[in-house]
Amino acid sequence: MCAGPRRHRRPLTRVAGGSTVSDSPRHRIFAMLDVDGDGAITHDEYLARVDRVAAAVGRDAGHPVVAASRAAHEAVFEDMDANGDGRVTFEEYRSWVGHEAFERSCRPALGSLFDLADTDADGHLDRAAFIRLRTAAGNADTDAGAAFDALDTDHDGLIDRDTYLTGIRDFVTTGSSPMAAAYGTAPAPGIRS
């Protein structure tokens, strides 16, 4: 039995100001963090991001930047895990994620991953370092390359820390970011962000 093309309706979430955002970016991020695909992000899955990025960029597990990143990710997991059971379901994640949570705990954790990848500590990542960071964090190589291209608006071949964090914040909180277009999750027409 054949069916015509499926039309996917994107679930919507209300955000500050009464506007709505597609859950598509949230589902994408949740799926990336739920490494084994069992419907929950475990503490081990979440903290493994730090180890994968550190290994990808050649940082020793005992390096102070790795320790700072691990501490920042511990704080995020504790913040996300509303019921304290060591597992974050999509509903917990969806209820938690937003501008306030990003500024409170995601910015420090994601900034710490950037710092891991910024091995010369100049505040910038070139394309290769950006792709290493994003693929170690769970993105596909092609998606990471497209995200770099979208964020590198001045075409100097570098992404600075603030541009990186702003791109992720906007992707997560509004679904509208150069990264959303790169990942194919830009809001559908008529959805305000």
Outline the structure in words.
With 193 residues, the protein is mainly α. Helix content is 56%, strand content 9%. It is built from nine helices and six strands. The chain has a two-stranded antiparallel sheet. Strand 1 and strand 2 form a beta hairpin. Helix 2 packs antiparallel against helix 3, helix 2 packs antiparallel against helix 6 and helix 6 crosses helix 7. The radius of gyration is 17 Å and the shape is globular. The N terminus and C terminus are likely disordered.
Observed structural traits:
single chain; 193 residues; mainly alpha; two-stranded antiparallel ribbon; 9 helices; 6 strands; 9% strand; disordered N terminus
Question: Topology, please?
Answer:
Blueprint: E1 12-14, E2 20-22, H1 24-33, E3 40-42, H2 43-56, H3 64-80, E4 87-89, H4 90-96, H5 99-117, E5 124-126, H6 127-137, H7 141-151, E6 158-160, H8 161-173, H9 178-183
Antiparallel strand pairs: 1-2, 3-4, 5-6
Helix pairs in contact: 2-3, 2-6, 3-5, 5-6, 5-8, 6-7
Helix content: 55-70%
Question: Which regions have little confidence, pLDDT < 50, spanning 5+ residues?
Answer: 1-22, 187-193
The major β-sheet equals: 2 strands, antiparallel
The overall strand count is 6
What strand line-up does the widest sheet have?
A: 1-2
Secondary structural class: mainly alpha
Total helical segments: 9
| Mean pLDDT value | 82
Proportion of strand residues: 5-15%
Terminal Cα span: 39 Å
Helix and strand sequence? EEHEHHEHHEHHEHH
* Rg from Cα: 17 Å
Query: What overall geometry do the principal axes of the alpha carbons give?
Result: globular
